[in-house]
UniProtKB/TrEMBL annotation:
Gene coding for it: egl-44
Alphabetic keyword roster: Developmental protein, DNA-binding, Nucleus, Transcription, Transcription regulation
Region (Disordered): 1-29, 107-130
DNA-binding region(s), chain positions: 30-106
Protein's organism: Caenorhabditis elegans
GO BP term, pick one: hippo signaling
Domain of life of the source: Eukaryota
Protein name: TEA domain-containing protein
Domain TEA as annotated: residue spans: 30-106
Keyword Translocase tagged: no
Amino acid sequence: MMTLSPPAGDGPGSAGSMAPESTSSLSDLSGDAEGVWSIDIDQAFQEALAIYPPCGRRKIIISDEGKMYGRNELIARYIKLRCGKTRTRKQVSSHIQVLARKKLRDEQAKKKGDIPSLLQQASPPGGVKSPSAVVFPPVSAAVAAITEISPQSSYSSIVPKVETDQISQQLFKSLPLWSFQQTPGLPIGMDLSQLVFQQSSPDKTVSPVKSEVVEETKPIASSQLTLHSFSAYVKCNKTSLRTELVKIENTLEKDDIDISVFYEKYPKLLRELFEKSEKKDVFFLAKCWANINVSDDVQNCQYAVDSFYSSREKFQLKVSTMACSFGNQAVEKIEQYFPIEFDGSYSFILNNSPMCDYMVKFIAELKKLNVIETMNNVLENFTVLQIVTNSETDELLMVLCFVFEVSQEPEPSCSVYRLIDGGGDSDE
């Protein structure tokens, strides 16, 4: 297992990894009082706490799945595997907070008590243990328990791969301008941990104190251009309500990823650009958890994109955005950005840029699938490639590769990584 930096908090991880919740699956929680879970669930919860220590803004990759998870999502997943009972990520988060508050109250009561601390320390063993004295099961035993279950087989039983490919083909063929030709996709179970290049020090042991230190964030920037923000959204004409579909903020994760892994998900142009470009700092991967909880009234809604770049140099930008299916370009949109000078630098702002009809219809068709696992498997074959160049010289300034999953949260989130030559096999 390796870790990748994700969006703030425990944000949505791999939404396709969790089965959709139902009333029946949550019925086992109805009798629980606040902060009190049944013995088997609490045991699994404590095991998971030992396996997955607090990781702050970071996510964890399950090596045999190649998917990113937040800590609370992994704890919920572990409880499901061990007990067969469903606890959502939010319920896990709430339970952790309840226990933390209880511990704080106990500590405060202890400080206010009249019993001398010496007597407390001299209490005879064998009594009821306080929460702080509970002995967690060994991590190795918990890991062994979870590895006995094959996550890959359980997921394939939920959404068979053949069925997913058929759904993908039906969805993609129903859209206009789609040049459909299936090419081998990135295997869902690929071990991404071999493709991540950690920038941290060789010492992997981090003390609890150090884990609380706020790390300096890096901007999403090449040597000539910085991406400050990107937002795809839907705005209802009747209510003026704006719902973010995809949102990128100006934070680059500290890990690098091998670009060769993603070649087959994009047109050959991506490989050609990377191999020919002298500047390797212009290539980025944006893993987006999209919010598709938007109005179905397509006719009375505006689908649009806002984006904001800046540079110390003055030039005009040309932005080519390609929607791709199975590694083939489906449709391309080209836009121009003109520089706005301010305080010695230049800004490039494009607001309310309409999405093409193709993308609007794709989102509408995707929503009809209803099941998040099915949607995410369809999205395995859908990517977006954005190429930013100097419109006068065609100099490459930034390449952004988008991959998507459906978010289980009401807000979208995104992690952006630099793509590098990791020495992977990029042959056909």
